[in-house]
Design goal:
Keywords: Membrane, Transmembrane, Transmembrane helix
Structural class: alpha/beta
CATH architecture of the largest domain: 3-Layer(aba) Sandwich
Helix content: 40-55%
Strand order of the largest sheet: 1-6-5-3-4-2
Protein name: DUF3105 domain-containing protein
Radius of gyration: 35 Å
Number of strands: 6
Pfam family, one: DUF3105
Strand content: 5-15%
Number of domains: 2
Length: 220
């Protein structure tokens, strides 16, 4: 009898121990499964983050290459003026310029705001020329310009620091781009010369006063 009870007790302990081992094994499997899933998630997130970074870097590289290509492209029809012959004095008297719009010369001590500013009405040449001296590109148009081109160039200017835009009725071309000592007439807003002109001459090497302000000037 005593021997039977001992055997029964031993069997219970064995079954309990077996159950404990099984439970411990399940816990180990669950921990490994959790670790595995977490690892997969982390690796996936890292991989996705790396993909986004590389993708963004590729986009930036393509954009930089596009800008560099535009900067190096020849601009057909570009007129260039001798910078040494363009006055840079600040004057209070009226100035008569030989070009319309002017490409440089003596000017008022105040500049037109040119931080992507679009003016609906004509602006004084003497203030706009000062903006050119600071490295701005001046986009101008007359009544022959198409509304779609005007709108597209307005958006281009608004997105570009050191640029400004205004109507100039006396100019020969419907759409013209001007920097200090540089000027070109373009056919449309989609003309490739637009990108090249902006890439070369917004704060370009022709700028007499690079880095000078394009804000806190004259606003229409």
């Amino acid at each position: 009898m005593g021997s039977a009870r001992k055997n029964s007790s031993a069997d219970r302990r064995a079954r309990i121990e077996e159950m404990r081992r099984a439970e411990q094994a399940r816990e180990r499997r669950n921990r490994l499964l959790t670790i595995g899933i977490s690892t997969v998630i982390v690796v996936g997130l890292v991989g996705f983050g790396s993909y986004l970074f590389i993708n963004e870097q590729n986009k930036q590289d393509k954009e930089d290459a596009k800008v560099e290509a535009a900067k190096n492209a020849d601009i057909a029809g570009l007129q260039e003026f001798d910078a040494k012959k363009l006055g840079r004095n600040h004057v209070t008297t009226p100035v008569t310029y030989p070009q319309t719009p002017p490409v440089g010369g003596d000017h008022d001590q105040a500049w037109m705001n040119c931080n992507g500013d679009v003016y609906e009405k004509a602006i004084p040449d003497k203030h706009a020329v000062h903006s050119l001296e600071h490295g701005a590109v001046w986009v101008t148009y007359n009544k022959q310009a198409k509304d779609a081109d005007i709108k597209a160039l307005q958006e281009k200017v608004k997105a570009t620091p050191y640029s400004l835009m205004s109507p100039v009725e006396g100019q020969k071309g419907a759409l013209m781009l001007t920097a200090w000592g540089k000027q070109v007439t373009v056919d449309s807003a989609k003309d490739k010369r637009v990108e090249s002109f902006f890439a070369k001459y917004v704060q370009g090497e022709q700028t007499p006063e690079p880095g000078a302000a394009c804000t806190n000037g004259i606003a229409q």
